[in-house]
Amino acid sequence: MAYINGIGIISPQDTLPGSAFLEPVIEHTSEFMKSIEPVYKQYIDPIASRRLSRLIKMGISSAKMCMLDAGLEVPDAIITGTGLGSVEDTEKILGELTKEEKFLNPTPFIQSTYNTISSQIAINLKCHQYNSTYVHRCFSLESCLIDALLQIDEGSAQNVLTGGIDEMTLNHLTIIRRLGLWKPEAVSNLDLWSSPLPGALAGEGAAYFSISKERNEKTYASLSAVQTLYKPSSTEQTAEAVVRFVTEQGLRPEDVDLVMMGNNGNDEHDRICDEVMMKALPSASRMLYKHLCGEYHTVSGFALFVAANILRKQFIPSSLINIPSAPGKLETILIHNHFRDTDHSFILVRR
Amino acid sequence: MPSRIFVTGLGFISGLGNNVQENLNSLLNLRSNIGPIRHIDTNLKHELAVSEVSMTSDELMRDAGLPDDSAYSRNALLGIIAAKEAFSHAKLDKHPGLNIGLISGTTVGGMDECEKYYQDFLTNDSKNRFIETYDCADSTEKIADHLGLKGFMTTISTACSSAANSIGFAARMMKAGKLDCAVAGGTESLTRFHLNGFNALKILDKFPCRPFDATRNGINLGEGAAYLVLETEETNQKTGNPVLCELVGYGNACEAFHQTASSPDGAGAYLAMKKALDMSGETPDAIDYINAHGTGTDNNDLSEGRAIEKLFTGKIPHVSSTKPFTGHMTSAAGSAEAIISILGMQQGIIWPNMNFSNPMPELKFQPAGEIIRGVDIKLVMSNSFGFGGNDSTLIFKKHGVH
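^ inputs. structure came back:
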């Protein structure tokens, strides 16, 4: 168990420092939900910034926002989760390689390696301590949080800076659409739940958290536990895993007030989310949020930002959808996510 | 008191051989297979010297009994072979009920199919089955499925220290009681992406690499996979597996100096080694052998050499880089060199730093030029340093030594 004492987030909503909590809602009508980016020179030296690709800039900036929010200068560890790393740089190289192999520009190669985000953050914060990067689809951010909790528990770190980050590009969207999991054409995010078109809406974002051993006046919420589940054989088995996870934290299923649902607009995906939670936590209020950020591997970072703010502010913005209705109290929130029913994850956040 | 972490299984495929025994035979016979590129269709074919696994991807597929229409990256195939060997070595399938983790390191290895079919991905549906081999998790999940593992799994990518960090993270989870045992290591296959990327950085040598030599001129890339089975002491009492050695220290530090270069004074390397040594509770003079990262670049060997001199103020242990044998296996280097170090410990052998002849004027010590036999090796240190200053060190101790 540890405390979330700072957050820095760049997302398709206006979540930059000074913004209201998910008010007003930003509508996206283009092919995917693109992040609302900050003025980068506030966070990165403009000369250095010119060489950096968009994902790296989002990573450094959100990490710095997070440290400012937490009132810390240097963390004891930096841990990043990313499903795909810098897609833009990877595509530049793949594009070059399909033409003719000639001498590549080395910058995209360097930035395409996944650990560039964490190490650029380390360079910017002058942090020489533990530095790692997890790159496992929907387990990426979850692995970071597990690592952070372990380091705090064993006493090797007091404050861990950790986050999840992914970007979308039009080429990548085209490719992933071939798998039939995404909406075949642009749909407004505000119509996500009513659109007759099958599939999820692609999104992106970067969310960093300052996770600390001690509670302080900046604390949003406590991060109780994180667990992953690989290839469950049925929704029953997944539901049992949810109940076991909650019980292991000393809670009863009815103690969970709110579940942030993994639903993303893909019918098959959403059916699994609904069945699991109806079975596991029938009394909890279920919340849909992916119409605000879209789907991506580290989307649970957006969910954790929402959960932590709900617990601190003790209110739910109207842009979030509660089924069947908003909960009576806001003490305990479970975040569930999954990638094709293969990688499931559970994050428990408490007031 | 946190549990001790024992190594009970090894699995290894590289240019030196397709299993641990073949790798050991090559090492003992001082055989390297660094040479021209054979398997990859690239313009760099005659430009670079590399170390490739002898089998083609088709042969690896057939060897694993996989149908031709399945979608496996070479990265996943290499990973499956090495992880399976480690898993069988520790007979983990004979012990139902163990909570087994899989932690794998990789970076660009999965690109081999994707870089062939990228234009198809963009324009037509003919190669859709390969789309998902693109990301890092794909090889890890394929390994898990082949071993029948359904417990915790994750993938680490810290460039050339990925596999070392996988081993460290697995140990951390086991000490916290989250896992009984783990298969940990890394896999990386050569790809055009990889070769061209490193080539763009101008750090590849077209001749066999010469780590710690004054005339060193860069890296030979290698490929392969290596995994260790780690068991907690309590789990080991259940499995009864012979203990090959103990993982007594792991250190991870970030140099935070430059995205691709190491600092001239080796601050990050020093910190990683120091952290691992502090965890092990040993003094520097207790270390018998350092398997250096020793890539053969100007920058790494100077920075690592200075860090070694800074930490080992008394006697400097035997040092060698075994990359002239295997090539630089990048994301798999950490676990591959951990295994090479453990094999040396078991055999009482200090592996030679091949191709060394001219001492570096900046350093006071020289690497082991020749193979040294009959050494009582109790403690070995294995260094893995990556781009971005992601520096990690592992320390293994002979079992039953106090």
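The radius of gyration of chain B is 20 Å. The domain at 1-402 of chain B is CATH 3.40.47.10 (Peroxisomal Thiolase; Chain A, domain 1).
thumbs up if we can close this ticket
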